[in-house]
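Tutorial handout. Part one gives the primary structure; part two gives the three-dimensional structure as tokens.
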Amino acid sequence: MHTTDEAAGLTLSLSPPLRDDELNRLFAAAWPGHAPTPFAPKLARSLLWVAAHRGDRLVGYVNVVGDGGAHAFVLDTTVHPAERRHGVGVRLVRTAADAARARGAEWLHVDYEPELAPFYERCGFRPTAAGLMAL
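Part two.
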């Protein structure tokens, strides 16, 4: 699946091949202190991921993992700082939600810091009580 917004010059792709160097470049720009990470093992365990490209440059990414049944989980929503506040993140997450539903997921979960609540509400999430254990 590829969708292109001609006016914005943005292409969203479902589970395209991605290289560690391009993902690490995006994460380093978006997350201060990011250490280079091998992404191939993560992607091998994913239900799907969505990538946003402007031209040949990766500008956004979201990963979805699943339990093999009704539950899927959004991880690593990342948008390049120069691309933020233009709807890229919302489009990534909504595309991921549609794709997870098409693959049989009935519930999509996400954990986020309080300041990200308005973003995830725009994506269609509603707050729920949840638990978290540091391991």
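Part three, for discussion. The chain is about 30% helix and 30% strand. The first strand starts at residue 2 and ends at 5.
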